[in-house]
Predict the 3D structure of the following.
Amino acid sequence: MKVAKHVVDARRRRLAEMLQRHRYLGIADLCKEFGISEATVRRDLVYLEKSSLITRTYGGALADYNLRFPSFRSRRSSGTSGKRAIAQMAYELLRPESVVYLDAGTTIFALAEAIRVAPVRPLTCVTSNLPAADLLAEVEGVDVHLLGGQVLLRQSVLLGDDACRSASFWKFDLALLGAEGMTREGVWNSSPAVVALQKAVIAQSRATAVMLDRSKLGHPASTFLGGWDSISVLLTDAPIEALKEEGIPTYMTKVEHITSYNEPPSLKPTHKATHISQGENFENSDLTLPTSLL
């Protein structure tokens, strides 16, 4: 039975509004929400894509995140001193023979710049960050691997279901993640698709460091990544007193231990974690990371 045009138009408007609000929705979720077939969902997505209202990915849709969120180039020019300071903190966590994940974003790119200047060798870097991969690809002793996924050119990142699946094939000693906000509740980011990939990476990581400059303090973003018990260490240039005032814990203990990698007992991670603020000596901090990172 042919559906009236005004019904189809109304459904597509609602679909576009949902994608604007939620940013990422899978095909199965859309079928359930609208009570329509997968073929109908795909036709609607094609229509919305041709109308420049969404960017499609395999198995779902990234809405106008790629267009509306500030581009990689514009973000790179802001807060450069803070980003360099945080990148240096992250650099000090790197150890030879480690497998590390480098997230998208300009603070992570600043870390890639530090690695290029003074390479940690040998090092395996897995990333969704296209500029970071390009920068490190020719550094001797640093092996660079890109995840799969759809290229979002303005954001210079790979995202989508394929990226999440690619991450699941790896076991990371350390994941270095960016985000868009930190509050008493935890860490926030700009899109469900970004958070989906970060959660896939965290699940495969023995330690997770989140890199956030002081401008992100007290500002939740659209999507919640996780509470403070879901990460190992916060790297930030925000003053300790400002963190305390916001209610962000300085010291955290991980709830779930990741011990499924079949390492010898001496290599299994402990999960004490801490904040490392700008100017603090890492060697004197209370941070405990997997033995392979020390």
The radius of gyration is 20 Å. The chain has eleven helices and 16 strands.
